[in-house]
What does this fold into?
Amino acid sequence: MTEASQPRWLLLIHQIPPDPSYLRVKVGRRLQALGAVPVKNSVYVLPRSEPALEDLQWVRREIVAGGGDASVCEARFVEGLSDERVEALFDAAREADYETLAREARRLQGALRPARRRPAATTERTSASLLRLRKRLGEVAAIDFFGAPGRGAVEGILAAVEGSLRAGATDTRSPNAAPLGPVRGRIWVTRAGVHVDRIASAWLIRRFIDPEARFKLVRGRDYSPQEAELRFDMFEADFTHEGEECTFEVLLRRFAISDAALRHLAEIVHDVDLKDSKFSRPEAAGLDRLVAGIAMRHKDDEPRLAEGGLVFEALYEYFKRKR
It folds into this structure.
């Protein structure tokens, strides 16, 4: 059997009796936690893998033990539903999860903005809420099988909250830190699954900060940096969101890059990444869709960085010439 004809999906087809009533709720929650999405009434789908098969087999056993009936099968869509349409169902489900997280993260961020000096209890509560949101984000990301674009916005807001919590501390990354000097030939580490801020920041690094930069894409939060590596736009990075600034803006400030064209780019990247309409740039909606299209075209990060870099190079040239 050729790779193209291999089944890509696992289906759970079930019938659940009306009694006991809790069984339907229990099964629904289990399937939601696994990231399965419905394609028909009582038909749920997951991308085919050994862990997914085992998970669905356990769900089937629960259904049968509760007096229902269920089957698990491998599937390949031939007519009607297409693979692309099924992937879109997964993306829509995860995008809804990310939007919920983003709303909660913005509320947390908004509560921090007015106070420059906060009581220790407020900082502790905010830190605890931040950890809970980070945990939930990790759970959603684990079932984000096709890279829905909304994760970047949530990461950006949470990083901004972390930056606000650090703002009062003495830190080399504080807004009053002296501009940094030249950097050459370093390994720049960021989280895999790059989107707008990481793509833009990588372009900025290689174009204006470190022409010999090499990039390393890692899983993120659990990564232990090696000596001489610089991290950007990830948890506890050397360069990441600070206060209300996205990573692109932080890099411009920390390396004292004063370029009017880059300032235009920074405002657009900010509006796309944080989705707070701070600058209300009309170009933001177009760039958002363009970067989302690049992410859809390329599952791997290297081509995303390459193609996205061309986009930012063209935008930079436009604003450089437009006086």
Remarks:
- Residues 168-176 have pLDDT under 50 and may be disordered.
- The first strand starts at residue 9 and ends at 15.
- The CA atoms of residues 14 and 70 lie 4 Å apart.
- Residues 83-166 form one domain.
